[in-house]
């Protein structure tokens, strides 16, 4: 930064150390221009709170808290809104926050995602101005909203499609490979992706949840017709229909 005449704001500089599960816990610190920067357990980057264990619990709590605050304000003006206006307002202010960078939450346990799903349930009831314990599934079906878990998988598979079709970023394309069997098989024409080869027992959790692992696994579970979609818009439309039937029908 000094060679490019850029000033580093040390008051906003954080050190985040992500140790491997067998690494010793180290009290790390670095010195920059005579100022000590000590390690912290979490740091915010582009609106995503990264924890040193990559469990994203703090990020989920922050997202749920901000969404609940917005829903509280929308509820105050809900008597003056039509159902359609309330839906647009919720989708613009709340659903967009639930979808922002949600691919980092891929493969987290259901109990970790539950706070975000509860927020979506409250938002659906608010759109239709229904009581607290109203059944949510018919409301999600009427709004054409996928559950949070499905929305996360939808985002990952959309990125996988762009990488598989060589239209996405090169750093994503390098993480996946098309399945090519050693001898001619019918599965070679199914458009599948090669699964990474590593020992699951000796693999860390972040590796099991990485894009290079989850994308081929989830991609190969899709119907062959869906994987062979010619355009991204056709794939997204078919993928939403597939998840809609899978989760809400």
TrEMBL record:
This is Reverse transcriptase.
């Amino acid at each position: 930064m000094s060679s490019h005449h850029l000033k580093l704001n040390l008051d906003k500089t954080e050190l985040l150390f992500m140790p491997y599960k067998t690494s010793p816990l180290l009290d790390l610190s670095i010195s920059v221009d005579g100022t000590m920067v000590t390690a912290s357990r979490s740091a915010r980057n582009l609106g995503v709170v990264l924890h040193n264990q990559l469990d994203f619990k703090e990020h989920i709590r922050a997202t749920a808290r901000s969404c609940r605050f917005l829903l509280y304000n929308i509820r105050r003006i809900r008597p003056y809104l039509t159902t359609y206006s309330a839906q647009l307002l919720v989708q613009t202010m709340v659903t967009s926050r639930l979808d922002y960078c949600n691919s980092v939450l891929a493969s987290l346990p259901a109990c970790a995602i539950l706070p975000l799903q509860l927020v979506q349930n409250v938002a659906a009831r608010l759109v239709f101005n229904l009581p607290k314990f109203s059944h949510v599934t018919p409301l999600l079906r009427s709004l054409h909203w996928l559950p949070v878990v499905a929305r996360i998988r939808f985002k990952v598979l959309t990125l996988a499609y762009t990488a598989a079709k060589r239209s996405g970023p090169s750093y994503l394309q390098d993480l996946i490979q098309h399945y090519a069997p050693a001898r001619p098989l019918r599965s070679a024409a199914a458009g599948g992706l090669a699964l990474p080869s590593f020992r699951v027992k000796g693999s860390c959790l972040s590796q099991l949840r990485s894009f290079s692992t989850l994308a081929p696994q989830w991609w190969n579970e899709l119907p062959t017709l869906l994987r062979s979609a010619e355009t991204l818009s056709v794939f997204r439309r078919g993928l939403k229909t597939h998840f809609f039937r899978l989760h809400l029908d």
